[in-house]
Design goal:
Blueprint (H helix, E strand, L loop, with lengths): L4 E6 L6 E6 L7 E4 H5 L7 H23 L6 E13 L2 E14 L5 H14 L1 H6 L4 E8 L1
Parallel strand pairs: 5-6
Antiparallel strand pairs: 1-2, 2-3, 4-5
Helix pairs in contact: 2-3
């Protein structure tokens, strides 16, 4: 299985602008620029897209882990915050913090915690960053 996305950039770093598109068409010529990455411009940026990808990946992995435990979530809500900092090596993703709230009828706290930790360790986006970026999780059963 392969997934594809593309980016186009025109101009210099600070005065240029670009667009990002995805194979599915969900993003089509979506604007990104220096200001959307380092300030508060209108559009997206690579770090925001990584946060979205990680939130989605983790949530699906959590659903799978719950299924293996014989549980089905009524709802799973996850946010991901990516920390993007200047280091000696240059700008780097230094941390990703996942926050998830789950409504799971019949789930014990320990079964939920096990499923959440397994999902954090096993989702492909988490594995992509393993060893390079600190990944933390705040998981709550509501």
């Amino acid at each position: 299985m392969e997934r594809k996305a593309s980016a186009v950039w025109r101009g210099g770093l600070k005065d240029g602008k670009g667009t990002i598109s995805t194979q599915s068409g969900v993003l089509k010529d979506t604007q990104y620029s220096f200001s959307t990455r380092f300030a508060e411009g209108i559009g997206t940026n690579p770090e925001e897209l990584i946060a979205a990808a990680h939130a989605g990946c983790f949530t699906m992995a959590l659903s799978a882990q719950l299924g293996e435990a014989g549980l089905t979530a009524e709802s799973l809500e996850t946010s991901a915050t990516v920390k993007f900092e200047k280091t000696d090596a240059g700008f780097t993703l230094t941390a990703i913090h996942l926050v998830t709230k789950a409504k799971i009828p019949g789930a014990s706290e320990s079964a939920f915690e096990t499923a959440a930790n397994n999902a954090k360790a096993g989702c492909p986006i988490s594995r992509l960053f393993k060893g390079n970026t600190e990944i933390t999780l705040d998981a709550k059963l509501v």
